[in-house]
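Lab notebook, bench 4. Still working through the backlog of constructs that have no structural model yet. Next entry is a single chain of 235 residues. Request: give me the structure tokens for it.
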Amino acid sequence: MKTVVAMNNIHKRYNSQQIETHALQGISLEITQGEFVAITGPSGCGKSTLLSIMGLMDRASEGDYHIADIATSNLKVDQRTQIRNEHIGYVFQSFNLIDNLTVFENVALPLEHRNIAKNEIKQRVEEVLTQVDMAHRQNYRPNQLSGGQQQRIAIARALVGKPDLILVDEPTGNLDSKNGDQVMALLAQLNKNGSTIVMVTHDSRYSRCANRQIQLLDGKIVTEQVMPQVVQGVA
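Model written out:
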């Protein structure tokens, strides 16, 4: 299997007012194509920091990170942006949709930054909206949709660029349990269809949807567990 993520001895330190915070302490892990990995742990343990480094939103203070065989340590800002656009889809807890754009325009955004013909953009956007069962809402604005619908649109936007890796940060954090269950069932189906997913969650019920769990504590991996393959969707 192709290695999508390879991290070796990743550290992240933050300095403020002469106080140093060691958010990540020597994280090493590999994620292969087709895995669904849940990163869990208490608040402040480094989950979101790890996801930000994986998504090239932030830089490690020390260590090596390869995404799809690309070394990222010495890349310039514009190179990191390009790799993020081509190889990574990001789903945020707060959706991060643009209110004055339609659903279609929000999902098309990652492709607008590539030299792709308009008819192909239209085809790919409609394809992913169909996948998340939101094609009938493509001309709506985000503020006309429920939270669960907005998260589906955010997932479609992450999918449209056909990324090697989909990163999902607390996808159910702003949803009620019914919508949360639906979003998790959708992620499980996308993984079944071949998407490689890394999800940060504090919810143990949802972390069981993944086929591997990595638990962090104080910036370190404390346990790693392969889950039974029978788990599909939410138990």
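Notes after review: The mean pLDDT is 92. The two ends are 28 Å apart (CA to CA). Flag for follow-up if needed.
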